[in-house]
């Protein structure tokens, strides 16, 4: 199954089930009218923003409620407590699109110091867990850790208030912030509290997040085996619970872990899984981010052309929507072109073009580190091109911008300045900058050594404890399993003795009902709900498209009057017309042609070639049928028909499997639709391959390769209107 097929099936799965949760909002009281937006915010953040904004506008338009309510009998005054859950949800949706500025503008007015009520703690947790530190300069990780520690103490002291899962959620967020600030002991203590709290718990979602953070903890202290084990545990639980966000984070973490080990193929495997996971969603920011990370791995694995393809796909997603990601994509495009070992002059020019774009955007976004890194790469290209004068100016600019903030970039700048001056013959300046390079490099190594010692100390303190704990837990689990096994055997034996007769009688009746239900369900799923025509997707999934050795014509037909039939005819009349269409098709093409429904407005006709002398006759008969049917119901009868013969390659009949033909017919239909839009009449277009083509040419996505074949002249066209210009999307990139 290829990449896009897996993504398509993933899309179907996502559309069927939305059991998606995340822990950052805890057990907030979400209003019923926006609960669906809460469930699908990771999948459809833009829709979530629109729905929640509309809801909040309606609430704001209502007359303000009385702040105080006086009970005459009890003489008690109660103050109305606002529900900030919609604001939290709206901020969470903006976070999904990495619009941190907007989310902070919503959350900061709600943030209290100290945060003590459940609503206040959720605000604090949402900021700490979801917004990166560089995006909230007014709130450092240390500040947030102190605030959250206070909130944890308040929750521990206040036994009367129901905080639900908030203590566990806040402790997980403290773990995240502690790891970012290298406070490994605090991270371990927080994880231990959550683990103890969830002991014997059935809250599997929190257990999955706990395993995820344990994976990061072990990765930070260089215990990669334990890190991978915990990530895999979290991954299995996230898959089972369909936790899209957690699943994406785990796959990104595993990919990064293997990337650091330079095991790029393993890293690409998890990065590819993340792309497939996010592809069916409408979260274009996460899709672009996953494509960007995948492209970087492709480049590191020397697959430069593949890397460029994924980068341009990512750019297409965010080009007019997300300037920050676009700047990063420009940066990686420049880096990729600069890394390509062939066509050096051309690729150097392209690298400079994209790096200049990246520099412009980073400067506009006030991203100083990335702007500095971009200038450093431009200087590197100028050194390669022997333009040392311009490179020196750029490197001096890097030192000015970086100052004391980015030592890694400064050390690279000193090294490159030394090289530039050496190439230009100024050995005194080269020696000066080389000394600066060595001095700063040693300072960085000392800091890294201190951090490494901190990690080693943490390992020495925890490895023995962790191993003993794992051994005790393993033995305890083995004893519990044995005990439970004996108990279960005893219970099952007793139940079998008591219920044997009832089970035997019930099995027969149940099986009979299940068989009937299965037959009914199969029939319902195999047919389109209105036209009652067979579903093409079901045929593909059940592997019904097998080549029987008989030459066929495939015709994919677009019927415009089905696009807005409900709007033009009304719901009930539309249903009658579609049912009549299905019946008329079945009657008219009886036993001669197999007809399946691909989409609501697309039908696939498959006929043996012996029924028609050429594809033109097949297309004209289809046009004639729809013209008659449309006239009968006062509908616009113009259709577009894309036709392809099967086998597509006569010399190697089995090179293209029947289930892949839909891509070729879709390509033919694309051209036919263009002609119909230009000429406002019925159109058909046939694609056919010339003789003796190498079948390896079509090993891949037929939508792309078919257009490449048209460009090379090995795929020919016949149409109802020869000479009409057709613009193929892949050829116009």
Question: Summary?
Answer:
This protein is α+β, with helices and mostly antiparallel strands and 733 residues long.
Characterization of this structure:
Strands 4-5-3-6-7-8 form a 6-stranded mixed β-sheet, with helices on both faces. Strands 1-2 form a two-stranded antiparallel sheet. The longest helix is centred in the middle third of the chain and has 100 residues, at 427-526. It is α+β, with helices and mostly antiparallel strands and 733 residues long. It has helices spanning 3-16, 35-39, 45-61, 85-96, 100-107, 118-130, 141-157, 166-180, 184-197, 204-220, 224-241, 244-260, 264-278, 284-300, 304-318, 323-339, 344-364, 368-384, 388-402, 407-424, 427-526, 536-541, 565-569, 571-588, 615-632, 661-679, 702-712, and strands at 68-71, 76-79, 552-558, 593-599, 602-608, 640-646, 683-689, 715-719. A hairpin with a 4-residue loop joins β1 and β2. It is 65% helix and 7% strand. α4 packs antiparallel against α5 (100-107), α16 (323-339) runs antiparallel to α17 (344-364) and α26 (661-679) packs across α27. The chain contains 27 helices and 8 strands.
Low-pLDDT runs: 1-22, 68-79
The total beta strand count reads 8
Proportion of residues in helical segments = 55-70%
Question: What percent of residues are in strands?
Answer: 5-15%
- What topology, given as strand order, has the largest sheet? 4-5-3-6-7-8
- Major sheet size, sense and barrel closure: 6 strands, mixed
Report how far the terminal alpha carbons are from each other: 27 Å
Question: Which class best fits the helix and strand makeup?
Answer: alpha+beta
The 3D shape can be described as: globular
| Radius of gyration, in angstroms, nearest whole number | 32 Å
Q: Number of helical segments?
A: 27
Residue-averaged pLDDT, rounded? 83
């Amino acid at each position: 199954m290829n990449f896009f097929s897996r993504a398509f099936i993933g899309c179907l799965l996502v559309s069927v089930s939305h059991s998606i949760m995340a822990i950052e909002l805890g057990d907030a009281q979400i209003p019923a009218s926006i609960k669906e937006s809460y469930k699908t915010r990771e999948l459809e953040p833009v829709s979530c923003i629109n729905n929640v904004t509309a809801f909040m506008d309606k609430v704001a338009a209502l007359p303000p409620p009385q702040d105080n309510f006086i009970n005459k009998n009890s003489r008690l005054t109660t103050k109305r407590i606002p529900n900030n859950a919609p604001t939290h949800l709206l901020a969470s949706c903006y976070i999904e699109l990495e619009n941190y500025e907007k989310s902070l503008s919503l959350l900061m007015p709600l943030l209290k110091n100290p945060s003590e009520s459940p609503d206040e703690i959720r605000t604090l947790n949402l900021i700490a867990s979801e917004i990166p530190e560089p995006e909230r300069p007014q709130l450092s990780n240390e500040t947030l850790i102190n605030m959250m520690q206070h909130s944890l103490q308040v929750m521990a002291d206040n036994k009367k208030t129901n905080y639900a899962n908030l203590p566990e959620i806040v402790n997980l967020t403290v773990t995240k912030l502690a790891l970012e600030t290298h406070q490994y002991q605090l991270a371990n203590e927080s994880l231990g509290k959550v683990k103890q709290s969830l002991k014997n718990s059935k809250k599997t979602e929190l257990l999955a997040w706990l395993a995820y953070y344990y994976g990061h903890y072990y990765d930070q202290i260089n215990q990669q085996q334990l890190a991978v084990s915990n990530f895999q545990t979290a991954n299995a639980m996230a898959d089972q619970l369909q936790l899209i966000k957690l699943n994406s984070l785990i796959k990104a973490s595993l990919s990064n872990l293997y990337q650091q080990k330079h095991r790029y193929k393993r890293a690409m495997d998890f990065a590819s899984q993340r792309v497939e996971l996010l592809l069916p969603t409408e979260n274009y920011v996460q899709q672009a981010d996953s494509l960007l990370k995948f492209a970087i791995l492709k480049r590191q694995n020397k697959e430069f052309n593949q890397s460029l393809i994924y980068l341009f796909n990512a750019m297409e997603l965010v080009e007019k929507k997300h300037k920050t990601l676009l700047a990063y994509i420009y940066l990686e495009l420049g880096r990729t072109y600069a890394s390509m070992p062939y066509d050096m002059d051309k690729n150097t020019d392209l690298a400079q073009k994209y790096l200049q774009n990246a520099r412009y955007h980073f400067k506009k976004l006030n991203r100083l580190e990335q702007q500095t890194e971009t200038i450093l790469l431009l200087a590197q290209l100028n050194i390669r091109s022997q333009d040392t004068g311009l490179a020196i100016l750029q490197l001096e600019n890097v030192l000015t911008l970086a100052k004391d903030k980015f030592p890694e970039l400064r050390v690279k700048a000193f090294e490159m300045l030394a090289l530039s001056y050496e190439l230009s013959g100024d050995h005194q300046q080269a020696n000066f900058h080389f000394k600066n390079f060595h001095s700063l490099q040693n300072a960085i190594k000392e800091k890294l050594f201190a951090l490494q010692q901190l990690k080693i100390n943490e390992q020495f303190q925890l490895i023995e404890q962790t191993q003993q704990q794992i051994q005790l837990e393993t033995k305890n689990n083995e004893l519990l399993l044995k005990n439970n096994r004996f108990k279960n055997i005893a219970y099952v034996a007793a139940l079998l003795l008591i219920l044997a007769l009832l089970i035997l009688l019930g099995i027969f009746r149940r099986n009979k009902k299940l068989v009937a239900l299965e037959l009914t369900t199969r029939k319902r799923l195999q047919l389109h709900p209105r036209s009652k025509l067979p579903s093409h997707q079901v045929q593909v999934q059940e592997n019904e498209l097998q080549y029987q050795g008989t030459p066929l014509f495939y015709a994919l037909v677009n019927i415009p009057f089905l696009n807005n039939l409900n709007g033009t005819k009304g719901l009930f009349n539309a249903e009658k017309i579609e049912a009549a269409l299905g019946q008329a098709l079945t009657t008219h093409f009886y036993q001669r042609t197999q007809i399946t429904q691909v989409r609501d407005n697309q039908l696939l006709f498959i006929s043996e070639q012996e029924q028609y002398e050429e594809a033109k006759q097949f297309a004209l008969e289809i046009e004639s049928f729809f013209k008659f049917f449309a006239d009968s119901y006062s509908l616009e009868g113009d259709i577009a028909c894309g036709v392809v013969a099967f086998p597509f390659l006569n010399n190697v009949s089995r090179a293209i499997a029947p289930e892949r033909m839909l891509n070729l017919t879709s390509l033919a239909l694309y051209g036919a639709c263009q002609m119909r839009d230009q000429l406002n009449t019925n159109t058909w277009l046939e694609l056919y391959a010339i003789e003796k083509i190498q079948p390896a040419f079509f090993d891949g996505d037929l939508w792309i390769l078919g257009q490449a074949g048209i460009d090379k002249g090995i795929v020919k066209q016949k149409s109802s209107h020869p000479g009409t210009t057709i613009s193929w999307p892949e050829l116009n990139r």
